[in-house]
Structure formats: structure tokens, C-alpha cells
Design brief:
- The protein has about 220 residues and is an alpha+beta fold.
- It folds into 3 domains: about 1-30, no CATH class; about 35-90, LysM domain (Membrane-bound Lytic Murein Transglycosylase D, Chain A, Roll); about 100-215, Glucose Permease (Domain IIA) (Distorted Sandwich), CATH 2.70.70.
- The chain has 3 helices and 14 strands.
- It has helices at about 1-30, 50-55, 60-65, and strands spanning about 40, 80, 100, 115, 120, 130, 135-140, 150-155, 160-170, 175, 180-185, 195-200, 205, 215.
- Strands 4, 5, 6, 7, 8, 9, 10, 11, 12 and 13 form a 10-stranded antiparallel β-sheet that branches. A two-stranded antiparallel sheet has the order 1-2. Strands 3-14 form a two-stranded parallel ribbon.
- It is globular, with a radius of gyration of 23 Å.
Length: about 220
Amino acid sequence: MIKNFKNYLIFFIFVISSCSSLNTFKETYQKFLPNSQTSFYVVQPGDSLWSIALKLNIDQKALIARNNLSKPYVIYPNQKLLIRGVKNLDFSLERDLSLQWHHPLNKNFQPSNIDDGWIVFKQPTGTPIFSVDSGKVEVAGPDIPGYGNLLMISHSNNYLSLYAHCDKILVKQGDEIGRGSMVAQLGSSESPFPLLKFQLRKDGKPVKAEKINFVF
């Protein structure tokens, strides 16, 4: 009886002493869970729906729908956004041969590498950047941490083009621009050296580099 009591007492002390670190353990554990197992994302200062969608590799429209957000889609720090059930984006395997995209730099500039869905061009600062097609500017500036001066342009048929780490951006949010228009200059904002990271998305999904038909 006494032995059992001592065992219960030791267990009770262990539980009490562990309580202070239990929350820390849970928070740390949650950070390593895949998005599909995490219920909420806590909005951080400087976050936008675009930045959250990019960070978690999910579709912004699906994030909006999941949380029943209404225009103008205002979010605020410490707000909890429901992400359970919002699937991670896979690469789009579609290749529409009828679509020919204007090269973002020059068709003679070959990519340095492909980095997780981004086509990377290492060229000198100030190299002109062109819009791959006509569209509307959705983001123009350092709105999404980690991408420097980011330009995001929406196009017809649910395509979206992204140009990261620009030096100067020559257009502003809301501008309607034409195909092949010079929209920015290559730079090194939030990058250790000058480069352009380009990505094309279809219905929110990154399009593989080999599926993009670039022409000048």
C-alpha cells in the first residue's frame, strides 16, 4: 500500500513538474506537423493572404473560401485562419501548346537552375524584366517576406506570373499591363546576389519549367 502510494506520489510530482514544459512541447511539435494535420495558421505581422498561400504552398482562393472571407479580405495579426482541409499544391502537369509566353528576360538567357518550382536567372542588376503576358498587377513591392521586391501579375485563364527579388518595380498594384511590357529591373532584394526567380502558376499550382513555352 505504501509502495503504491509512493508510486502515485512520484507520478503526480512528475506530471506537475512537466506542466510548465508541456505547452512548449506542443508548440514545438505543431511546427513540424504537415499542413494537413495542422488546424490553424496564426497570422503574423506583415502577413497577407498571398504570403500565407506561398509560405504554406496552398491556393489563396481555397484559403479564402475555407475561412469564409469577404472582400477586401482583410486579415490581422494573431488571427487564426483555418487551414485543415486546404490541400498542398501539386505541380500543374498541363501544357497548353497554344500558349506562348513572352520570356521574362530574353530567350537567350538560360536558367541557372530550377529551385522548388522557381526558374532562377542569374543576370546583372538592372537587367530588364518583361511581363510574360498581358494582365493586371496584383502585388508590387516587398509585401511578402523572403521574396524581396515581388511582382505578381494575374493573366487570363487563371494564370499568375511571379517575379521575385527585383531591384526596381516600374508598375503599381492595379495597373493593367501589356504583353512584353517592361515591368521591373533585376536585382538582389532579399538575395545575396542579383537574380530573378520566376514562377508561372495555373489555378494556383506552379507550372513545371519544361511545360512553359517561352518565346521572345
